[in-house]
């Protein structure tokens, strides 16, 4: 049987090995030249694509948060200037001043005052009466004055304790009593502090009105400070009227510090008069700073009025003092009250 050849296409001529045909393109451009043209076109297209992209900065989110931190206001439907700013840098600045400068300097100041009082008591001792008590009492403060004094002193102590708890509670009270006890205590402490402030301010203003006439500074008050009314040094005690130089200094410090603490406290207590956030922060810094000075100075007043000078506490507790005390500490007042010579 004869076999037929089936043709499926034109027959391709056989090309001997090593004699391949060259394309027309390879004869026009050498390979190095073609590669350079290709790279040039690729670079051009890349530059064209980059030029079409708008310039938006290295990091648009960084620019946004930079504006936020700088306090650039935005847009809001709430009609309040403070609400247009997302993050207030003043809050961070206030927190650093409160928890840093005020806390540390306040603690050092009060510790220094307590140490000075302790050393003074150890070295100098109690200012005792030079003459025996006579038993004759001289009226010094009326019942109303004593009630007013203890009323104001009570709220001062309450405000001092609750205020210091608020400032130093995290560092002192939490390690001692735990977070749960501290949290429950501070809820009541802040409430008591806010309500006690206006009540203290009322008592302070009445004290200023009724006692200012006896606290006008005079030249003899400067002499009193040279030896602290005879508590240090030698020689005769300086003359003094009903109120000596030290008591006058405390009165005026109480007046100015009390008014500053009272006004700033009312601003913080009643944020209903359109106070700005910055006003509240500045008020708080003034309030805390002056309050610490007030408390530190009160430690000296409490020391002299209790254990520092014999017979002094009786004047504000019983309303009268012994004749020997009056002659020793307020000789001019003694002469005015009794008509006798003090020496």
Describe the structure.
- With 343 residues, this protein is mostly helical.
- It has a domain at 131-338: Fumarate Reductase Cytochrome B subunit.
- It has twelve helices and two strands; from the N terminus they run ααααβααααααβαα.
- It has helices at 24-28, 31-51, 60-69, 89-123, 143-177, 179-211, 219-226, 245-269, 277-308, 312-317, 323-329, 331-338, and strands at residues 137-139, 320-322.
- The chain has a two-stranded antiparallel ribbon.
The gist of it:
This protein has 343 residues and is mostly helical.
Which keywords apply here?
343 residues; mainly alpha; Fumarate Reductase Cytochrome B subunit; two-stranded antiparallel ribbon; 2 strands
Question: What CATH architecture of the domain at 131-338 would you give?
Answer: Up-down Bundle
Biggest beta sheet summary: 2 strands, antiparallel
Question: Which structural class is indicated by helix and strand composition?
Answer: mainly alpha
The CATH topology of the domain at 131-338 is what?
Fumarate Reductase Cytochrome B subunit
Looking across the biggest beta sheet, what order are the strands in? Answer: 1-2
Query: Beta-strand percentage?
Result: under 5%
Global Rg: 43 Å
Helix-residue proportion: 55-70%
Terminal CA distance reads: 168 Å
Q: CATH-wise, what's the superfamily of the domain at 131-338?
A: Transmembrane di-heme cytochromes, Chain C
Which stretches of 5+ consecutive residues score pLDDT under 50?
Answer: 5-9
Under CATH at level 1, the class of the domain at 131-338 stands as Mainly Alpha
So what's the overall shape? elongated
Helix tally?
12
Q: What sequence of helices (H) and strands (E) makes up the elements? A: HHHHEHHHHHHEHH
What's the mean pLDDT score? Answer: 84
What's the count of strands? 2
């Amino acid at each position: 049987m004869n076999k037929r050849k089936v043709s499926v296409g034109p027959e391709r001529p056989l090309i001997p090995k090593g004699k391949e045909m060259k394309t027309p393109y390879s004869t026009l451009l050498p390979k190095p030249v073609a590669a350079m043209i290709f790279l040039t076109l690729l670079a051009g297209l890349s530059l064209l694509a980059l030029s079409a992209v708008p310039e938006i900065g290295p990091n648009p989110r960084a620019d946004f948060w930079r504006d936020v931190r700088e306090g650039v206001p935005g847009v809001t439907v709430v009609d309040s200037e403070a609400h247009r700013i997302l993050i207030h840098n003043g809050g961070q600045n206030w927190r650093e001043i409160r928890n840093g400068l005020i806390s540390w300097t306040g603690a050092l100041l009060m510790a220094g005052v307590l140490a000075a009082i302790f050393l003074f008591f150890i070295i100098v001792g109690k200012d005792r009466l030079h003459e025996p008590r006579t038993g004759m009492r001289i009226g010094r403060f009326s019942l109303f004055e004593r009630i007013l004094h203890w009323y104001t002193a009570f709220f001062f102590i309450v405000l001092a304790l609750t205020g210091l708890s608020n400032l130093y509670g995290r560092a002192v009270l939490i390690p001692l009593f735990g977070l749960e006890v501290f949290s429950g205590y501070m809820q009541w402490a802040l409430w008591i502090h806010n309500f006690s402030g206006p009540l203290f301010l009322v008592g302070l203003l009445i004290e200023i009105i009724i006692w200012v006439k006896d606290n006008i500074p005079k030249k003899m008050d400067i002499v009193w400070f040279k030896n602290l009314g005879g508590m240090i040094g030698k020689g005769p005690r300086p003359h003094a009227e009903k109120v000596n130089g030290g008591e006058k200094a405390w009165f005026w410090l109480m007046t100015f510090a009390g008014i500053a603490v009272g006004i700033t406290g009312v601003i913080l207590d009643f944020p209903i008069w359109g106070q700005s956030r910055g006003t509240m922060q500045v008020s708080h810094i003034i309030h805390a700073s002056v309050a610490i000075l007030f408390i530190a100075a009160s430690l000296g007043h409490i020391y002299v009025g209790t254990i520092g000078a014999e017979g002094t506490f009786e004047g504000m507790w019983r309303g009268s003092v012994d004749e020997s005390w009056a002659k020793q500490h307020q000789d001019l007042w003694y002469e005015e009250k009794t008509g006798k010579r003090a020496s």
